[in-house]
Design brief:
By secondary structure, the protein is an alpha/beta fold. It has helices at residues 46-52, 150-153, 159-168, 185-196, 208-216, 228-233, 248-257, 291-302, 318-326; strands at 3-9, 20-26, 34-43, 73-80, 92-95, 98-100, 120-121, 133-137, 142-143, 177-181, 200-205, 221-224, 238-243, 258-266, 282-285, 310-314, 333-337. Strands 3, 4, 5, 8, 9, 16 and 17 form a 7-stranded mixed β-sheet that branches. The model has no long low-confidence stretch (mean pLDDT 96). It binds zinc ion (2 copies). Keywords: Metal-binding, Oxidoreductase, Zinc.
């Protein structure tokens, strides 16, 4: 049996207890319809931290033990399973959180496979990208345009698709105002997609560095959410708001900024004490995105219309990077990379 190195989680536990172990483990061969990816990079997502620390055990995640986390993965195809003809060994590819879907349900057959009830999530139900190699389904693997760097592209596969799908829920354009609340990796992508619609973008966050990056990425205005006067100045001014910060106080701020008749898109859980009808507002939840949307994200990146902001670390340092994420000490999206991987 061949082997590889991977970050494996046996039992969820607080990251301070270092529950991940970088160790030698089995390297399975791709089954029919699957391919193996020699991983170049895997983005570090807050949801990885949630799973590792055991926040989602009640929801059945992780579904296997041990499990290899990671769901924004890029690399080169290194082996093909039976029947896979769309890819060749050496192709640059990526995988998003949606690892597989049933392909037969009403959602899968109407281009909404992200809602498939039998969907499998990369690194939560099956092994993910914190490893030297990963198995993917060919049906949910995407060619990465040759002009894109594979380390910088990794976050396109979770923050990118998540932000794109959230903005895609809106019908906004020139003359409209969109406010983005929560400026981590996803928020920074959403600022760019919202700006591409021609709408005026207001970025709202509490970290000065994040506000600065948002301005560089096309936000017309930035508002420090810790400043009540600044928030009051944009009250009732946005045709649409998008929230990526899972806090009730942020939801409340977002509704304060949303115009009557406007739409709030939430890419995070939301709790509402009340939802008055007299403002005729709309709430739309958004979860990851479809294959079609993922391909659009890659096209926009290849055309230079959007970009990621990343810091790269060696794969073996995952625990240290996740601890920094838990402490709020990361400046931008962290990416774990395997040095020296080539086609
Ligand atoms: Zn993610
Ligand atoms: Zn399905």
């Amino acid at each position: 049996m061949t082997s590889m190195f991977a970050q494996e989680l046996d039992q969820p536990a607080p990251i301070a207890q270092a529950p991940l172990t970088w160790r030698e483990t089995a390297r399975p061969a791709p089954a029919a319809g699957q391919l193996e990816i020699h991983v170049v990079a895997c983005g570090v997502c807050r949801s990885n931290l949630h799973m590792i620390e055991g926040d989602w055990v009640d929801g059945g995640v992780p579904a296997i033990s041990p499990i290899i986390p990671g769901h924004e993965v890029t690399g080169y195809v290194s082996a093909l399973g039976e029947g896979v003809t769309d890819f060749q060994v050496g192709d640059p590819v990526g995988v998003q959180p949606l690892w597989s879907s049933c392909e037969t349900c009403e959602f899968c057959t109407s281009g909404r496979e992200n809602l498939c009830h039998d969907r499998k999530i990369t690194g939560e139900h099956v092994n993910g990208g914190y490893a030297e190699y990963m198995i993917a389904t060919a049906a949910h693997t995407y060619p990465v345009p040759a002009s894109l760097d594979l380390v910088e592209s990794a976050p396109l596969f979770c923050p990118g698709i998540t932000a794109f799908a959230a903005v895609d829920k809106l019908t906004v354009g020139p003359g409209d105002t969109v406010a983005i609340f929560g400026l981590g990796g996803v928020g920074h992508m959403a600022v760019q997609f919202a700006a591409l619609t021609g709408a005026r973008v207001i970025a709202v966050g509490r970290t000065p560095e994040h506000l600065e990056v948002a301005r560089e990425l096309g936000a017309a205005d930035t508002v420090d959410s810790r400043d009540p006067e600044a928030l009051a100045a944009i009250a009732d001014s946005a045709d649409a708001v998008i929230t990526f910060a899972p806090a009730d106080v942020v939801t409340e701020q977002a509704f304060g900024v949303l115009k009557w008749g406007g739409t709030l898109v939430n890419g995070v859980p939301l709790t509402l004490a009340e939802f008055p009808f007299n403002k005729a507002q709309t709430i739309q939840a958004s979860v990851i995105g479809t294959r079609e949307q993922m391909r659009e994200v890659l096209e926009l990146a290849a055309a230079g219309k959007i970009r990621t902001v990343v810091d790269s670390f060696e794969m073996a340092r995952a625990t240290e990077v996740l601890s920094s994420l838990a402490d709020g000490a990361l400046r931008s999206r962290a990416v774990l990379a395997n040095p020296g991987v080539t086609a």
